Amino acid sequence: MCVAVPGKVIEVNPADNTCIVEVFGVTRRINTIMVGEVELGEYLIAHTGFAIEKLDLEEAMIRLKLWEEILSYADPGQVS
Amino acid sequence: MQILDRFRDPVVGRALLVKVTEQAKEVAERLGRRSVFMEVCGTHTVAISKAGLRSLLSEYIDLRSGPGCPVCVTDYGDIDRMVAFARTPGVTLGTFGDMIRVPGSFASLEKEMAAGADVRIFYSPADAVEYARTHPDRHVVFLGVGFETTAPGIALSILQAKAQGVTNFSVLTSHKLVPPAMHAIPADPELRLDGFILPGHATAIVGRNAFQFVADQYNLPAVVTGFETTDILDCLHNLLDQLFQGQVRVDNGYSRVVKDEGNVRAQALMEQLFEVADVSWRGFGVIPASGMVIRPEFADFNAEKRFTVNIPEPRIPKGCRCGDLLKGKINPHECRLFGTACTPVNPIGPCMVSSEGACAAYYQYDRRGQ
Hints:
The structure holds two protein chains of two kinds. By secondary structure, chain A is α+β, with helices and mostly antiparallel strands. Chain A contains one helix and five strands, in the order βββββα. Chain A has one domain (5-73): SH3 type barrels. Chain B folds into two domains: 37-53 and 63-309, HypD, alpha/beta domain 2 (Rossmann fold); 322-363, no CATH class. Chain B has helices spanning 2-5, 10-31, 42-50, 53-56, 76-86, 109-114, 125-134, 151-164, 178-183, 200-206, 212-218, 229-245, 264-273, 303-306, 322-326, 350-353, 358-365, and strands at 35-39, 61-65, 91-95, 119-121, 139-146, 169-176, 195-198, 222-224, 250-252, 274-281, 285-294. In chain B, the strands form two sheets. A six-stranded mixed beta sheet of chain B has the order 4-3-5-6-11-10, with helices on both faces. In chain B, strands 2-1-7-8-9 form a five-stranded parallel beta sheet. In chain B, helix 2 (10-31) runs parallel beside helix 12 and helix 3 packs parallel to helix 17 (358-365).
């Protein structure tokens, strides 16, 4: 039930605190009151018609870089 | 989406799996047994089973499912109350799709629909408010089921109904809070739990700080994590590392979404609409301060204040061990009914009904057992 998906903001309607997000080609209008002001191109976590949080791409990059460091000595061919 | 696609990169996933397997073996040798980690989120339960991690790592890690599926932890009495509302003349019962097939003591909402009750599935509670606005001859009772992830949206829909003057809309709340239920788990000596995989989206609302007690009070490591296979492997890497090093922290591995303080706007919405109450969880009984009920000032939107329904004493089906499963005491394979009398087509307990229930996930992805 806590399934929530990242969606890219493709239209913003500040007048009624909504925006349209695209998730894998599917679009849906969601409420943005819980995340404040949103901008085109931002990613939001959508759950039951509401944006529950913004997705921070910089933090995502930091995590990916961390994995690169962790995995620098691992051999990806060992598990099939 | 290019950056986010890298969280699904099979090369990264495979390399993380190698790393985690090596680590898990080392930790198992040191402990003289498998390490035991529990996920407390139904979406994690499905993600772990679907990726095959439970069976791939089963030699060294026992991945247990806890009370993370809000549908599954909804008690028989609460389902019976929902059924009673569905039978109330003039009421349209609105619900998320997960609740439809969950059996109560005597019936399910699906059976009530078949018998003529007006039960409707809504993607969003805001859609239910709109339905009520355009159907003034009906009273829409929406089922407020879910953890902290879902409750702020329900709160907002009540505020929307109030602002729009929609008086034929109310909510039957069965909301539950994750942290109080987790107090009941580490205290169980039978479990020998070594750490928690913390729910990403409930924590997006309450914040990482809300789970600091896991380390402070129970001396257990815990990691907030996302829902990609790589996220979960990263979480296991962190938990195993803490276990090996003898460290105990509550870390945030889902920092692209979760903040230490959580979403304060969402918390304010919950605070405005709900007050904390003692509620009953399937398998656990009543847990103090573990649920949310509508505040008296919003009584007009509280279905229980608008209607009176009578429900008989709940009846629990014989042999169903959903309660033990939700406490992490058993895996689905250890229930006598699993895969025989209880299947997704003919479910007996809620854990087999909900798409995020552990029994349904194990049935679909982990039937060979461990």
